[in-house]
Amino acid sequence: AAVPPGVLALLLVALLWAPWRALHGAPLAELSGDQDFQLFLHNNLEFTRKIKGDVAALQRVVCDTFQLCKEEELQLVREHLGVAQAPLEQCHRRTFQAEACFSQIRDGLRTYHDSLATVLELLPGHASLVETLQLDAANLSSNIQQQMEDLGLATVTYPAEDWGPLPTFSSSFHHQVGSFFILENFQRFLETAYRALRHLAHF
Fold first, then answer.
1. Domains along the chain?
2. pTM of the predicted structure, to 2 decimals
3. Measuring CA to CA, which residue among 68, 179, 182 is closest to residue 124?
4. Using CA atoms in the order 148, 150, 153, 159, what is the torsion angle rounded to 10 degrees?
5. What does the angle CA 24 – CA 28 – CA 32 come to, to the nearest 5 degrees?
6. What single-letter DSSP state applies at residue 144?
7. What is the pLDDT along the chain (203 residues), one digit of tens a residue?
C-alpha cells in the first residue's frame, strides 16, 4: 500500500533528526569525513529534492490553470507586486560561511512557509499538496535550527524586514502572478540551498 504523504514527510523528518545527536560542539571542518555528518547531508539533500519536486508540481498547476508559465512575460507586473526573494548570499561558494548559510536557509524556509498561504488561497483544490509543502518547509527549518544547536554552530538571525512582509494583491490577476513568483522564488531558493548542501558534502 502507498504511504500517505503526511506519514512520508514525518518519516523523512525522523531520518533527518537522528544522525546529528552525537556531534555536539565539533568544528565543521572536522566533520567533513564523519559518516554521521555525511549521512545528514545525504538525507538533507534528498529532502530538499523532494520539496523541489512539490514546488515544481505546484508551478505546473499554476501554468495549466492560469496560463502563467513564463517568467519573462510577467516581469513588468512583478515590479509592482513586491514579491521579494529570501536572501541566500551566504550560501554562494565565494562567500560561503556554514553558520550564516544554515541560518539563511532556516529563515528562508520559514518565510516561504508563510508565503505559501497566498498560494493556498489561490489553489484551494490543491490544499493537500500546499499543506504538505508547508509542513516540509517548517520541518526542514526546525531541523536545521536544532542541528546547528547540536553542533555548537553560531546562530545568526536575519530580520524578516530584510525581505519585507507578505505582499497584498489588489486583483485576482495580481494574486495569480504573485503566487507564480512566490513559487518561482522558492524553487530558486531551494536550488541554491541544494547546491550549498552538496558543496558541504564535498567539503
1. 30-70+93-156+173-202 (1.20.1250.10)
2. 0.80
3. 179
4. 40
5. 110
6. H
7. 444 555 444 444 433 433 333 333 344 555 555 676 777 788 889 999 999 999 999 999 999 999 999 998 888 888 778 788 898 988 886 777 778 888 999 999 999 999 999 999 999 999 999 999 999 999 999 888 877 777 777 766 655 544 555 667 889 999 999 999 999 999 999 999 999 888 887 76
> What is the rounded distance in angstroms from the CA atom of residue 43 to the CA atom of residue 49?
10
Residue with cell 507578505: 166
Using left for φ > 0, alpha for ψ between -120 and 50, and beta otherwise, residue 24 falls in: beta
Q: Which residue has the cell 546562530?
A: 155
Question: Exposed/middle/buried for 179, CB within 10 Å: 0-12, 13-18, 19+?
Answer: buried
Output phi, psi for 107, to 5 deg: -70, -40
For residue 195, the one-letter residue type is R
